[in-house]
Write a structure and sequence with these properties.
Elements lengths: L15 E5 L2 E4 L2 E3 L5 H4 L1 H6 L5 H10 L6 E2 L11 E2 L8 E2 L14 E2 L14
Parallel strand pairs: 6-7
Antiparallel strand pairs: 1-2, 2-3, 4-5
């Protein structure tokens, strides 16, 4: 029937799972490399009882501003091009000056300076 089972992540699969081209994979979604650490570790902190459930819900909701957005549907091999959250209108980033000044309701992404320039995901 085409259904695929979906399971919860194990405790050792929470938080940062990997990355590519500077983008980070956190609990199954791709995010901006400048996402604050408390947002990355929110579920780990909930399970370790360092934060309460209300704080966890707030932190998970705050991740939205850092989420990479799809540019197109996945191709036949499963590859999908993604867009920076600042270009998608979900954040403001100092690398992309045209995204600045969109309002205080959007997160301000402040990438770490690098002598070789911005990460590929930020270009």
């Amino acid at each position: 029937m085409g259904y695929k089972p979906v399971y919860d992540y194990r405790a050792d699969q929470l938080g940062r799972q990997g990355g590519t081209q500077g983008a980070i994979l956190v609990e199954g979604r791709w995010y901006c490399p400048s996402m604050p650490e408390p947002l990355i570790t929110a579920t780990i902190d909930l399970h370790a009882e360092r934060i309460d459930r209300e704080t966890w819900v707030r932190l998970i909701a705050a991740r939205r501003g850092y989420r990479l957005m799809p540019k197109q549907n996945a191709d036949d091999e499963g590859y999908q091009r993604m867009m920076c959250p600042a270009d998608a209108g979900k954040a403001q980033c100092s690398i992309k000056q045209h995204t600045m000044g969109r309002g205080i309701h959007l997160p301000l992404i402040d990438p770490e300076p690098s002598p070789v320039g911005p990460l590929k995901v930020c270009r």
